[in-house]
Amino acid sequence: MLPVPQADTGNGKGINHMIKIYSIRVSVFSTNCYVVQNTETKEGFILDPGDYEEKILEFLREKEVKLTAIYLTHGHLDHMMAAERIKAEYKVPVYCHETELSVLADPVQNLTSRFMREGYVFTAAEGLKDGAGFTAAGVSVKLLHTPGHTPGGCCYYLPENGVLFSGDTLFYHSIGNTEFPGGSMGTLSRSIREKLYTLPEETVVYAGHGEETTIGTEKRENPFVPATEV
């Protein structure tokens, strides 16, 4: 567990007086689905609801989250399979980077044809551009397009809270798989160096799988993408 500026006595991680971050383990791939909740208004948003929709819905009800939106870091099945049900339940929009819309709509690229009996497509998402800044549940968010794992893979940066949701771009001492359709090691390395390693080193990274880390830790210790290209 990483230290944070303000400890939280519940199941969430207190980042400042405004938000709590909760992690829900979903899918057979042990994906981290995150719920960010504004502690003042109880509004919140979800990142990467990969599966187990009943588990997610039960959690939202338990925490009395007033859901405002769903955000996807990319279109692989383990990050989006519960989005359709949650969208219908709460009548909220689903967003991703604009390039990833075609991945969501293609069962080969979204990997459902590989890991499921039948392919699945999701066409109800709305596309956002690289660098798009917006407010979600009263929280300032910036989308960073970080292709390499998928063509439209992205991260969501909360500058006022010092938090990055990195999806499958950057992990603790690791990086996303680049062997799936549309993946590229060279592209992913550039994304990490140019978009993520330029963030403040104390930025806490909440990855799509595994434990938390910081930008500074990965710049110094990540064996796959060193801070300086060799």
Structure in a nutshell:
The protein has helices at residues 53-62, 77-80, 83-90, 101-104, 112-115, 185-196, 215-221, and strands at 13-14, 19-26, 31-38, 43-47, 66-71, 94-97, 125-128, 133-136, 139-145, 154-158, 163-167, 170-171, 174-175, 204-207, 213-214.
CATH topology: Metallo-beta-lactamase, Chain A
How is the largest sheet built, in terms of strand order?
A: 1-2-3-4-5-6-7
Give the number of helices.
7
Describe the sheet with the most strands: 7 strands, mixed
Low-confidence stretches: 1-11
Helix content: 10-25%
Strand element count: 15
Q: Give average pLDDT, whole number.
A: 93
Shape from CA axes? globular
User: How much strand?
Assistant: 25-35%
**Whole-number radius of gyration?**
16 Å
- Helices and strands, in N-to-C order? EEEEHEHHEHHEEEEEEEHEEH
Q: What do we call the CATH homologous superfamily?
A: Ribonuclease Z/Hydroxyacylglutathione hydrolase-like
Describe this entry's structure for a reader.
This protein has 230 residues and is of the alpha/beta class. The protein has a single domain, classed as Ribonuclease Z/Hydroxyacylglutathione hydrolase-like (Metallo-beta-lactamase, Chain A, 4-Layer Sandwich), CATH 3.60.15. 21% of the residues lie in helices and 30% in strands. It is built from 7 helices and 15 strands. A 7-stranded mixed beta sheet has the order 1-2-3-4-5-6-7, covered by helices on one side. The protein has a 6-stranded mixed beta sheet with strand order 8-9-10-11-14-15. A hairpin with a 5-residue loop joins strand 14 and strand 15.
